[in-house]
Write a structure and sequence with these properties.
Layout (H helix, E strand, L loop, with lengths): L6 E3 L3 E2 L11 H7 L5 H10 L3 E2 H7 L4 E3 L4 H12 L4 H13 L5 H16 L2 H11 L8
Parallel strand pairs: 1-4
Antiparallel strand pairs: 2-3
Length: about 140
């Protein structure tokens, strides 16, 4: 299905700059922790730097990298492969994969939202967002 696979254009850059704004990427982390190794996850979320589509593929964040004009062709090729499986078998396999995680997505989202909201209300976030909007480095408190 559309949420299980990612095709990125070769010129795509991906990043999570929340910490540079005094924020927490908690909601995104809930899903990324299910896709990435711990060190790659830490690099993306703590470093806040942009990574290329190739680096994202190497990390496991992206399944395939395609020329910008070929993204939909790649996505359709994945879809053609998927429809060869039985719909119920695919559904059950996805459920099993989801159940292997030690905690549910809902529990993780609730936890992440608490952290996100706490950070969002902080003076640090206020300064980080202002600095971003004013195109200047933040003056951390």
């Amino acid at each position: 299905s559309a949420c299980d696979f990612v095709v990125a254009a070769k010129d795509t850059v991906i990043g999570f700059p929340e910490t540079r704004r005094g924020l927490v990427a908690g909601l995104v982390l809930t899903f990324l922790r299910r896709q990435l190794k711990d060190r790659d996850l830490r690099e993306l979320l703590l470093g806040g730097q942009l990574v290329t589509a190739k680096r994202a593929r190497d990390m496991g964040l992206v399944n395939r990298v395609a020329a910008p004009a070929n993204g939909m062709t790649e996505a359709r090729q994945i879809a053609k492969t998927l429809v060869q499986g039985g719909p119920q078998a695919l559904t059950h396999t996805k459920r099993i994969l989801d159940e292997f995680w030690p905690s549910s997505v809902k529990k993780d989202l609730d936890r992440a939202l608490r952290h996100h909201l706490k950070a969002r209300k902080s003076k640090e976030a206020e300064e980080g967002i202002a600095a971003f909007l004013e195109k200047r480095p933040p003056r951390w408190i």
